[in-house]
Design brief:
Keywords: Cell membrane, Membrane, Transmembrane, Transmembrane helix
Strand content: under 5%
Distance between the termini: 24 Å
Number of helices: 15
Order of helices and strands: HHHHHHHHHHHHHHH
Main location: membrane
GO molecular function: transmembrane transporter activity
Largest sheet: none
Radius of gyration: 20 Å
Membrane topology: Multi-pass membrane protein
CATH architecture of the largest domain: Up-down Bundle
Pfam family, one: MFS_1
Structural class: mainly alpha
Length: about 400
């Protein structure tokens, strides 16, 4: 059901968009917070650092599975209720982590969080399309992804700092009231979002039969794979090549995350009716920034500038690609969103694996070079974007 079919007043929908933006910030914070608390969590649960890292990655795996199943499993359920249920799962996951006395409990909690991640992202764009008129969708997406910028800027530094003050369990307990408020906000702000039909899983095959969409998914996979091949191993690069200590490292990560606010703001204005011309931009800008780090990463100022550019495009990337989906697969937004989220999550996991192999067997510079190669492939597939729009079908 589109915005027009829902008959909503446009002004009344922005509160719901803001509620979803807060959900994005909390989801990403919950997903990546353990990275900054890995060592104390390992000690508290009698596990190794590697085991905790593997548990963190489980959320990505369950997110892939959930993204492919959510529209079928949810059936004709009102999407407002589904979003509320997913947010409740995030709340339960945080409580389980905070109270965990065993590694097995942590694994179960991360699986639950992955269900929330996969389900939310699969439905998010289609819900945004029902909350605001078509002309406001790019701006609403940028506003929602503003939550990503908040999490990227503050989650890791705050997690590390607060962990030293109140312990890693205290950090997760501190997130609980925020998620509770978000849950109540969903109840109040989201309109009823009934679904007229049950999604048939066969629609995935129909969508993949659209050559422009399949080509877009390939470009998407290499774009995100490139980004996370680099980002996952940014810390060892900064420590080994740039030669920074913990304090400077935190400042550089804050610069990268804060630049995301610029990315979401600008992308909301740039994504118009011809979004295809922007599709190669994320891989081009982020790949060039990574190449710049390989060439000039031993200089602190140059590194800070390049990370700011990379961080701004990192948040703009999601707005651009989801804007493409909203314009070119508007007849099946939930199914298309499910496929895109599955591809993104799988690409993130694969990019981290490729980067890890290059790091272990060669060097961190090889990892960054691998990221540049993946970006070049993404640029080649995306081309000028004309073969990625439905008019080319």
């Amino acid at each position: 059901m589109s915005f027009a079919e829902g008959g909503r007043n446009a002004g009344a929908a922005w509160g719901a968009v803001l509620s979803m933006s807060l959900c994005v910030a909390l989801l990403l914070t919950a997903e990546f917070m353990p990275v900054s608390l890995l060592t104390p969590m390992a000690g508290g649960l009698n596990a190794t650092n590697g085991q905790i890292g593997q548990a963190v990655s489980l959320s990505g795996f369950s997110a892939v599975v959930t993204s492919l199943l959510i529209t079928t499993v949810a059936g004709r359920l009102n999407r407002k209720l589904v979003l509320i249920a997913l947010t409740a799962l995030m709340l339960l996951s945080l409580v389980m982590v905070a109270m965990a006395q065993s590694f097995a409990t942590l694994i179960a909690a991360r699986v639950l969080l992955g269900i929330c991640i996969g389900g939310f992202w699969s439905l998010a764009t289609s819900i945004i399309m029902r909350l605001v008129p078509a002309k406001d969708v790019p701006r609403a997406l940028a506003l929602m992804y503003g939550g990503q910028a908040v999490a990227a800027a503050f989650a890791a530094p705050l997690g590390s700092y607060l962990g030293g003050l109140i312990g890693w369990r205290g950090v997760f307990w501190a997130l609980v009231p925020f998620v509770t408020v978000n849950l109540l906000w969903h109840l109040i702000a989201l309109p009823s979002l009934p679904t007229r039909f049950k999604q048939d899983i066969r629609v995935f095959g129909q969508l993949l039969g659209r050559r422009y969409f399949l080509r877009g998914l390939l470009a998407l996979s290499f774009t995100f794979g490139s980004a996370f091949t680099m980002f996952t191993y940014l810390r060892p690069f900064l420590e080994e090549i740039t030669g920074v200590g913990v304090d400077t490292l935190s400042i550089l990560l804050l610069i990268l995350g804060s630049a995301g606010f610029v990315g979401t703001s600008v992308s909301g204005r740039l994504v118009g009716n011809q979004v295809e011309r922007l599709l190669r931009l994320p891989a081009l800008v982020m790949g060039s920034s990574t190449l710049g780090l390989l060439l000039f990463g031993d200089g602190l100022i140059a590194t800070g500038i390049l990370l700011a550019v990379w961080g701004a495009m990192n948040t703009a990337m999601s707005v651009i690609w989801m804007g493409w989906m909203s314009q070119n697969v508007d007849d099946q937004p939930e199914a298309a969103g499910s496929l895109m989220v599955a591809i993104i999550q799988a690409s993130i996991l694969l990019g981290a694996m490729i980067g890890g192999v290059l790091l272990d067997h060669l060097s961190v510079t090889a990892t960054f070079a691998g990221s540049v190669v993946l970006a070049l492939v993404a640029i080649a597939i995306a081309g000028n974007g004309r073969k990625l729009v439905k008019s080319s079908a």
